[in-house]
Each structure stands twice: as C-alpha cells, then as structure tokens.
Design goal:
The chain is mostly helical and 92 residues long. The protein contains 3 helices and no strands.
Length: 92
Amino acid sequence: MQTRKRVDAIKAYYAHLILYLIASIALLSLKARILDYFVSKGLTDSGTHRWMEWNIIFIPIVWGLILLVYGIYLFLLKPGVFKNWEQRQLKK
C-alpha cells in the first residue's frame, strides 16, 4: 500500500473510531429514553421490548468488533504482508 493511501486509511479509521465512540455513548446513554418512548406509544409486548433492548446493546458491540478487526488489519498485519504473499504466490 502506498504511503499516501495508508495515511488516508489511518485517518479515516480514526474518524470512524470517533464517530463510533460518540454514537455508542449517545445510544447507550439514551437507551432508557428510547425504550420509554416506544412504551409510551403503546408497546406492550415484552418480547419486542427485550428485542429492542438487546439491539441497542448489540449495535455498539458489533460495530466495535468490526472496528477492532479493521484496526488489527491496518496496524498489525500491515497490508504489505498480503502484497508480499501475493507476489510470492504468483512467482510459484
């Protein structure tokens, strides 16, 4: 990966990380209000209520795992490793 592309990828990763932190904090801190809003609008099914509650919790978890995997790829595995492997395979 060229240096400029790598710097742009790292910059985009940090921007995404900041967005993740802001959105997760907002979502988790407003969880009770979101659920109360739907209850006030007539939500009476406890199964739907639990489903909504778990979705509010799992969104930051899944998003965080995706960011973690991409961060490992970006910072630890270094895309050059895959490029070198690909070139070695082509030579074979």
